[in-house]
Design goal:
Number of strands: 4
Helix content: 55-70%
Strand content: 5-15%
Radius of gyration: 17 Å
Oligomer: single chain
Largest sheet: 4 strands, mixed
Structural class: alpha+beta
Distance between the termini: 27 Å
Strand order of the largest sheet: 2-1-3-4
Number of helices: 10
Length: 210
Amino acid sequence: MYQIHGLSISSNTAKTLYVAEALGIDYEYIPLDIKKGEHKTPEHLARHPFGKLPTLTHDNERLFESDVICRYLAETENSDLYPANDLLIRTRINQWLSFFSAHLGRWLNTYAFERYAKITLGFGEPNKATEAEAYNFIQQQLPVVNQIFEQNEYLLGKTITITDYVTFAYFECTELADLSLRDYPATLRWFEKMKMSNAVKRAHGKLERG
């Protein structure tokens, strides 16, 4: 049995559930209430020394960092979502995971945090300068990603991988932050297709998202 402790509003938590559902694994999702400080209890700090979310517990072992969790789940299940026998595909998956974590995904998260999550979680007023910085980077990087989707059904071509589920979790921030994808039709096509996937729908039920 796998256990995922997470924050339901978080894209990092969502991506781990999307991958878990795509793999069809038996897992338990346990949301924590950060307003009550449940992420800072000794029990959770044993799972993540910095008190962050999500975490994975499997066979009494604990892991943190969402992209690592996604890779671990797919590799443990010997899934083609992260194929063990194709080094080039795995490297390209890691390439995109690194890009979104450090660049576009980061800025989408930042923008949504300032526009939506900050107030929702009680973390104070939005920082307009940070919001503007994130928006500017999004507008620089999103057209290039759209060109990828103009050429490919998924990020790596015709075959879906964990990268698509991870990236979709970041792009959901556009809905929270009221950031339209209408100017990026290829990206919007991919986004709507991912949104209608059974894995995402099942995960949304556990995350209590409409």
